[in-house]
């Protein structure tokens, strides 16, 4: 069996492990646009911050590929999928045959149309190792940085470079930071923590145009001078290979719960895939590291002839900024139970008799219990939720349920 994986990502690592759990001998080839072994992308901000050394960013040990019998084609790009002929064409015209194919092409930065942005000489994205290395070369203590985008990527960049530049201003058209992750009150708490470290925010506004190193804002008419520009507005799934091959594509590559695409013998996983989100009961892109791993693992097992499903995906985020730590999951709908203090924040969301979501800031001891309730859609009538709402603990479950949970841990 010949397995080909497009993309050298977390999803690809999981796919390799999934394949090898079923098939120990098949040929595995990875096509990697980057020149590095797979690394943890969330670590690039910590590398800039000095908390993680570059050599410690690898997601798996140095001998991972060798031990698993994997051939990696570094700095190569897949240009075309021939789903009928079962081949992938690379840059340069070379073709590789496959029996089973994984598309794990991830996503790319989205740069909205902004007049004059092409005139900005020192502008960067913040998604890859090369992005980090390029930005690092530009940093110096006298430079002012403008970040367009107050989402997760933009703010992790802020954390990574804040102590290495003169100032940072963040502009976002939303009325709060991380609007897809936090509600208004939670966002305000995290924003205050960042402001205490010197970060400036201009929210509810956008950069209308640039004149070299000056940004002109649309609503406030403010002018912001800068030396370095980081654009972190959002991302777009890399779906072109599958779409051009005739596969079904929406915002992402459409997959079923087994990670099959609409093309025979072609699977997809990670940020490029649009799969089932159990929290809303329909498909959408969940561009999250844990989801990428689970999807890749399921794809690998099924590619090798096994049987696996990914049917309990939910949105989850674990984020830290300096001394503020955030954990969220599910959807923010229904009845709300709150516990909010000066430096902590807790909201639980209950709908149709089940826990459907939570937001926790600096208060998430044993929060995995909440996550398991959401994934399993456990009726709250089956647990002591009054006890759980105060603090997640196994004592809130029946004796049999506690035994089952403890058995799973072992």
Structure in a nutshell:
The chain is built from eleven helices and 26 strands. The chain has 410 residues and is an alpha/beta fold.
Give structural notes.
24% of the residues lie in helices and 29% in strands. It is α/β, with parallel strands linked by helices. Strands 3-2-1-7-19 form a five-stranded parallel beta sheet. A five-stranded parallel beta sheet has the order 9-16-10-11-12, covered by helices on one side. A five-stranded antiparallel beta sheet has the order 22-23-26-25-24. The longest helix is centred in the C-terminal third of the chain and has 15 residues, at 289-303.
Over the alpha carbons, how many angstroms does the gyration radius reach? 23 Å
Number of helices: 11
Shape: globular
Residues in β-strands, percent: 25-35%
End-to-end separation in angstroms reads 34 Å
- Uncertain ranges: none
Alpha-beta content class:
alpha/beta
Helix content: 10-25%
Mean pLDDT, as a whole number? 93
Kindly report the spatial arrangement of strands forming the biggest sheet: 3-2-1-7-19
Biggest beta-sheet profile: 5 strands, parallel
- DSSP summary, beta strand count: 26
Offer a few descriptive terms.
410 residues, 5-stranded parallel β-sheet, 11 helices
List the helices and strands and how they pair.
Elements: E1 2-6, H1 10-20, E2 27-32, H2 44-49, H3 64-67, E3 70-74, E4 78-82, E5 87-90, E6 95-97, E7 100-103, E8 107-109, E9 123-124, H4 129-138, E10 144-148, H5 152-161, E11 167-172, H6 184-196, E12 200-203, E13 207-211, E14 214-217, E15 223-225, E16 228-231, E17 235-237, H7 240-244, E18 253-254, E19 266-268, E20 273-277, E21 282-284, H8 289-303, E22 316-321, E23 324-330, E24 335-340, E25 345-351, E26 354-361, H9 368-376, H10 385-390, H11 399-409
Helix pairs in contact: 1-8
């Amino acid at each position: 069996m010949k397995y080909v994986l497009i993309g050298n990502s977390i999803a690809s690592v999981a796919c390799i492990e999934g394949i090898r759990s079923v098939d120990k001998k098949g040929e595995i080839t990875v096509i990697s646009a980057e020149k590095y072994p797979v690394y943890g992308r969330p670590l690039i901000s910590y590398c800039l911050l000095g908390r993680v050394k570059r050599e410690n960013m690898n997601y798996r040990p140095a001998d991972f590929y060798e031990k698993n019998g994997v051939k990696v084609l570094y700095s190569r790009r897949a240009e075309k999928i021939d789903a009928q002929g079962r081949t992938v064409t690379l840059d340069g015209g070379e073709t590789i045959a496959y029996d089973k194919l994984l598309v794990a092409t991830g996503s790319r930065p989205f740069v909205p149309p902004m007049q004059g942005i092409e005139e900005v000489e020192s502008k960067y994205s913040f998604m890859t190792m090369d992005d980090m290395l390029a930005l690092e070369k530009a940093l110096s203590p006298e430079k002012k940085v403008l970040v367009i985008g107050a989402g997760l990527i933009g703010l992790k960049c802020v954390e990574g470079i804040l102590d290495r530049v003169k100032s940072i201003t963040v502009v976002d058209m939303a009325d709060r930071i991380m609007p897809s992750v936090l509600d208004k009150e939670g966002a305000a708490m995290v924003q205050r923590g960042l402001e205490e470290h010197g970060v400036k925010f201009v929210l509810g506004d956008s950069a209308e145009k640039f004149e070299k190193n000056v940004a002109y804002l649309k609503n406030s008419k403010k002018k912001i001078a800068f030396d370095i520009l980081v654009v972190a507005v959002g991302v777009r799934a890399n779906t072109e290979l599958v779409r051009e091959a005739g596969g079904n594509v929406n915002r992402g590559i459409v997959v079923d719960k087994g990670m099959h695409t609409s093309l025979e013998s072609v699977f997809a996983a990670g940020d490029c895939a649009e799969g089932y989100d159990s929290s809303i009961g329909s498909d959408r892109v969940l561009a999250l590291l844990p989801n990428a791993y689970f999807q890749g693992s399921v794809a690998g097992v099924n590619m090798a002839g096994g049987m696996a499903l990914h049917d309990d995906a939910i949105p989850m985020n674990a984020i830290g900024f300096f001394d503020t730590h955030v954990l969220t999951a599910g959807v923010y709908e229904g009845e709300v139970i709150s516990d909010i203090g000066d430096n902590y924040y807790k909201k639980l969301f209950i709908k149709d008799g089940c826990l459907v979501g939570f937001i926790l800031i600096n208060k998430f001891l044993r929060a995995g219990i909440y996550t398991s309730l959401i994934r399993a859609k456990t009726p709250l009538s089956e647990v002591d939720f009054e006890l759980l709402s105060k603090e997640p603990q196994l004592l809130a479950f029946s004796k049999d349920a506690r035994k089952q949970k403890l058995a799973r841990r072992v």
